[in-house]
Amino acid sequence: MSATVPGFRRKTGSLHSERRWALWSAYISLIFAAIIMLAPPFYMLMTSLKSSAEIADLSGNPWIVRSPTLENFWGIISNPMFRGFMYNSIIITASVVVITMIISVLAAFALSRMRFWGSQALATGVFLTYLVPDTLLFIPLYQIVGGLGLLNSVWGLVLVYPTLTVPFCTWIMIGYFASIPKELDEAALIDGANWMQMLVRIFIPVAMPGIIAATIFAFTVSWAAFVYPTAFITQPSEMPLTIGVVSQLIRGDTFAWGQLMAGALLAALPPVIVYAFLMDYYIAGLTAGATKG
After folding, report:
1. Short-list 261, 66, 235, 211, CA closest to 152
2. 254-267 pLDDT, tens per residue?
3. pTM over 0.90
4. Number of structural domains, the chain?
5. Are 232 and 145 in contact, with CB atoms under 8 Å apart?
């Protein structure tokens, strides 16, 4: 008995050492990744706090602000055109999120619980459409939107954006609905509930984390989309925030760097706030969608 104790201690010490080095390696990797990821927004913040003269002065350290000022933020917020960009983005994002969630929840419920011929193949096909890059689709979509007379209109983007959001959100919801025990279906059917009552009273409350995850994804995609508005919108009055700031603050070879950085930070602020408060739900929804189905 005594002969085995030293070996056991050596093994325990080895496992403890390996665990410690694994933790240190993970922390170092995370710190390194955080520095790389946070360097661009930090540089944008420093630039947005500089005056035009300080930005043009190349002799100083670009990472340090000598005379901080909020004139860039005030200048872009007080600009009526910028407020119009923000208003357009809010209209587009809210409309797309509502349309996406209605279609995705109904489609996911039908594909995951109402078994019918070809439902599995159709569910796979819905997700595969998400893998098609938007750079291949904007030309035919441009012709469709133009044929409907919706070019240079925010409603053209409301029509097009669900092609980016519905497939992935449907896939998330299929995984979450599939993880709900089938006994709930049977109990509801025995009690005389129809399919719509089952969806509204049972599945939506239970699958709320998945719905929140899908909503966050739809919000992020519709808020930050760049290719489609660049192709479909040329009038400043109809531009969303993502392209409005860039197109109106760059004149030829003149760049208003301070306001550009301030506008980019303000445009990125809503998704950051959403992820900061709802990250746990987003991770839970993605995990369920990736492991169930």
Report:
1. 235
2. 677 888 888 888 88
3. no
4. 2
5. yes
